[in-house]
Amino acid sequence: MDAQSVVFCHAVVDKFKELLRNSNGQIEVIYVYGGGANALKQWLYPQLIEALKDFSAQADFPILYLDSRYSRYLNREGLFKVAENVAKV
After folding, report:
1. Distance in angstroms (rounded) separating the CA atoms of residues 41 and 21
2. Residues 6 or more apart from 30 whose CB is under 8 A from it?
3. CA 61 to chain centre
4. What is the mean pLDDT of residues 28-41?
5. Any residues with CB less than 8 A from the CB of 3 and at least 6 apart, and which?
6. Which of 9, 27, 29, 74 is buried most deeply by CB count within 10 Å?
7. Does residue 1 surpass a pLDDT of 80?
């Protein structure tokens, strides 16, 4: 794994931990997609599992990796929703 991948995985895990802290127990599933998620899965997935264990022994929900076909759709739809909201302002 190259240095950029290490930095990226750490950044994702840090953001994941922040989301866990701020979720008030409302998370039921984690979706990982886009941005090379599948290419980094062998390194990122174990780190996400560890972060989840560190967060709570009771937190037991799935971490799902989506195929790139779905990633593209979700990214496109998400960007479209953001554009719609910005256009309304």
Report:
1. 23
2. 16, 48, 61, 62, 63, 64
3. 13
4. 85
5. none
6. 9
7. no
